[in-house]
Structure formats: C-alpha cells, structure tokens
C-alpha cells in the first residue's frame, strides 16, 4: 500500500556516520532513507545574555536546506537577506527538543550550537535533524568530559524524533515525501530514550482524526524512536 513498499510500522533505513566533520567538536551524517542531514556541534565559552551569570549552560540550533536538497533549486536564504518562517520554526524546535535531554547545571556556563544542514530532503528533515543533532551533541559532550571540563554527564537521556501520519486511511510510521505530501494527518513526535514525550506537532491535512488514531500514532512513534535511539547509541558507543 505504501509507495515505498514498507510495512505500516516499518522505518526507512537509518544510518548514522559519527565524526563526519573534521573540525567540529561533534558531528555526524544521518541518513533516514533519502533524507540526509549533516549535524555539527560547536562548543563556546559563552551563553546568551539572558542566562549570563546563572551557571546554566545552553543548547541551541541552526537549520538550513541546501539549494538542491529538493527536486527544484531553492534560493539560499542568505541571498534573500533573511530566514524564512519555516526555517526559524524548525531551528527553534531542534533547540527546544535537545535541551529537554540536558542537565544545564551539569553542562556549566557554556553554549553548544548544533548546525543542521539538509543535504537531501525526502520528508522528515526536522526529525532527522533532531536525531542526528543529539549524536553530534553527545560527541561534543564526550569531548568536554574527556578534558575534565564537566564533572558529571549533562546528557540525562537521548532525544530522537520521528514522523507518523494517516496515509490512505492507515496509520503509518516515518513518512517519506510521497506520503507526507498526501497524508490526511501528519505529526512529528519528539521523545526521550526512556519513552517520555517532549513535543508533538500534530495536524489534520484535509482529514480529521480520532483519539484512538492519535494513540495508535503515538505507539508507532514510540517504536520508531526506540529504533532511532538504538542507532544513536551504536553510533556513539
């Protein structure tokens, strides 16, 4: 039934290549099917002004898509002089999601910026960015711990994200672009490795959904996130 031939509860193939970038404190190239995202983590001895002197650390993110990440060329946002609303919304989401798994006291008064660049898009780019962003963050924090710059691990739980939706009347896990573009219901589920929800973005795209259907989608998301967390742990072992 699915265009890809996958089962309703089947993820796309996932691969995570850690240490992809030479200069970043933490990095990975994550591939979720044909969606490929490069994630780099940068450690800085500064924090935003609103928490300066508090002793708390900060994790933030930036997100962007290369001009030919899709089947038609998109103009670089830098050439337009400003970021689009979708870009701003997604990078704020990535930052919020990753901070949910961080003990900011243990991190200390420093900032880690996660840069997520979509090299190729086929649905679920924000979810791949969050999942890969955590791997880059984990590797950067490992460097801090190895250098003795933090005394306890500030990452309390892995964070990963997956999309689910109602496609052709059926609940499906991990939407690719052909499904995402035609789904009656579309949702992004961000969860911790222990199964706690961080954020749910859920909307009807021409079709309403029931409480039972939403529960089914949450169950699918929990399965998918469990697989993604396994891939994260294998990449950072």
TrEMBL record:
Residues 10-140, 157-224 form the Exoribonuclease phosphorolytic domain. One of its GO terms (molecular function) is tRNA nucleotidyltransferase activity. It is an enzyme of class 2 (transferase). It catalyses: tRNA(n+1) + phosphate = tRNA(n) + a ribonucleoside 5'-diphosphate. GO terms for biological process: rRNA 3'-end processing; rRNA catabolic process; tRNA processing. Phosphate binds at residues 86, 124-126. PROSITE patterns: RIBONUCLEASE_PH. The keyword Translocase does not apply. SUPFAM superfamilies: Ribonuclease PH domain 2-like (SSF55666), Ribosomal protein S5 domain 2-like (SSF54211). Its EC number is 2.7.7.56. Pfam families: RNase_PH, RNase_PH_C. It comes from the Bacteria. Keywords: Nucleotidyltransferase, RNA-binding, rRNA processing, Transferase, tRNA processing, tRNA-binding. Homohexameric ring arranged as a trimer of dimers. Belongs to the RNase PH family. Phosphorolytic 3'-5' exoribonuclease that plays an important role in tRNA 3'-end maturation. Removes nucleotide residues following the 3'-CCA terminus of tRNAs; can also add nucleotides to the ends of RNA molecules by using nucleoside diphosphates as substrates, but this may not be physiologically important. Probably plays a role in initiation of 16S rRNA degradation (leading to ribosome degradation) during starvation. NCBIfam families: RNasePH (TIGR01966). This is Ribonuclease PH. It comes from Pukyongiella litopenaei. The gene is rph.
């Amino acid at each position: 039934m699915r265009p890809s031939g996958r089962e309703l509860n089947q993820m796309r193939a996932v691969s995570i290549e850690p240490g992809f970038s030479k200069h970043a404190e933490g990095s990975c190239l994550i591939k979720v099917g044909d969606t490929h995202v490069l994630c780099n983590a940068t450690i800085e001895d500064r924090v935003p002004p609103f928490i300066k002197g508090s002793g708390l650390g900060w994790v933030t993110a930036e997100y962007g898509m290369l001009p030919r990440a899709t089947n038609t060329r998109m103009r670089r946002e830098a050439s337009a002089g400003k970021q689009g609303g979708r870009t701003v919304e997604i990078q704020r989401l990535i930052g919020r999601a990753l901070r949910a798994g961080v003990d900011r006291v243990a991190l200390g008064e420093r900032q880690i910026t996660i840069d997520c660049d979509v090299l190729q898009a086929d649905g679920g780019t924000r979810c791949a960015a969050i999942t890969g962003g955590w791997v880059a963050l984990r590797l950067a924090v490992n460097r801090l711990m190895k250098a003795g710059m933090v005394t306890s691990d500030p990452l309390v739980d892995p964070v990963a994200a997956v999309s689910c939706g109602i496609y052709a009347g059926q609940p499906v896990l991990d939407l690719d672009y052909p499904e995402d573009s035609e789904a009656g219901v579309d949702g992004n589920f961000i969860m911790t490795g222990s199964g706690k929800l961080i954020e749910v973005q859920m909307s009807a795209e021409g079709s309403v959904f029931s409480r039972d259907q939403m529960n089914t989608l949450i169950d699918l998301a929990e399965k998918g996130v469990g697989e993604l967390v396994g891939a994260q742990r294998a990449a950072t072992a």
